[in-house]
Amino acid sequence: VCRAFDLKLDRIIPSSVVISNYYLLLPQQFQPSVALLAYVSEQQAELVGFVNKSLHQSRTIQFSTDEELVESFKAEVEVFREQVQVPEGVPLDIFLVGHTAKMREVETAEGRLKIHRISGLTPLGLELSGKILDNQKFSEYFLPISAARSGLERKSPISINLLPPEERSQKSRWAWTSAYALLGINLVLLLCLGMRGTVQQRIYARQL
Fold first, then answer.
1. What is the per-residue pLDDT across 143-175, written as a single tens digit (0 to 9) for each?
2. For the chain, what is the HEC assignment?
3. What is the distance between the alpha carbons of residues 97 and 20, in angstroms, rounded to a whole number?
4. Is pLDDT above 60 for 108?
5. Global pTM exceeds 0.85
6. Adjacent-strand bridge partners of 50
7. Alpha carbon distance 128, 116 (integer Å)
8. What is each CA distance from 50 to 57, 104, 134, in whole angstroms?
9. Which of 16, 118, 131, 188 has the fewest C-beta atoms lying within 10 Å of its C-beta?
């Protein structure tokens, strides 16, 4: 598709990495030491597990009905709890995003899960997002929004690029030459404007 519109790609990132970077870029108070983040789309759910604020595992659930999703999700949660040795009676933190209405029955597992619904960009520090992006759109475009948010960072928590090196857009070191030249000219002009008053005063003083 990108080639058809003559668009050059810089990177291709797996969805599990996008989800992981979203979680790992959350403020510290939103990051339990052990957690599971589930992104639910129409017929697929991706579960990413974290231990000690690092990616532990990623699994994908394919489903036809909401009931099938819930049953598969509960099974995956129990496997994850056993793998990371969550003590019995301690609730596991679950972050839900996307079509979370499909997961309503999950909340009935009292004492086993602690549900957190992600519905906007506020946890990422973008408090004004609600004015331009409602919760429904955020859930629908969670992956591209999270990928873009991760791209704003100088260094992402997990940096992976599946695009072959020869197909990546090359950034020439001369690409910024014109911008730096204009910046230099502007600085010179600003300097001249700043010195203008002093020079004029000296000229007037000599004439007197």
1. 888 887 777 777 888 887 777 777 766 655 555
2. CCCCCCCCCCCCCCHHHHHHHHHHCCCHHHCCCEEEEEEECCCEEEEEEEECCEEEEEEEEECCCHHHHHHHHHHHHHHHHHHHCCCCCCCEEEEEEECHHHHHHHHHCCCCEEEEECCCCHHHCCHHHHHCCCHHHHHHCHHHHHHHHHHCCCCCCCCCCCCCHHHCCCCCCCCCHHHHHHHHHHHHHHHHHHHHHHHHHHHHHHHC
3. 13
4. no
5. no
6. 35, 55
7. 21
8. 7, 22, 28
9. 131
Burial of 170 (0-12, 13-18, 19+ CB in 10 A): exposed
Q: Which pair of structure tokens corresponds to residue 156? A: 């992402």
Q: In what order do the strands lie in the sheet with 113-117?
A: 54-62, 44-51, 34-40, 92-98, 113-117
Task: Pick the range with the lowest mean pLDDT from 25-34, 53-62, 170-179.
Answer: 170-179
pLDDT (0 to 100) of residue 197:
63
Of the ranges 69-78, 98-107, 145-154, the best mean pLDDT one: 69-78
Residue type, 64: S
Q: Are strands 44-51 and 113-117 parallel, antiparallel or unpaired?
A: unpaired
The one-letter amino acid at 55: L
Rounded-to-integer distance, Cα 24 and Cα 158, Å? 9
**CA nearest neighbour of 183 among 194, 171, 173, 191:** 191
pLDDT tens by residue, 170-193: 655 555 566 667 767 767 776 666
**Residue percentage of the chain with pLDDT more than 90:** 20
The single-letter code of the amino acid at 143 is: L
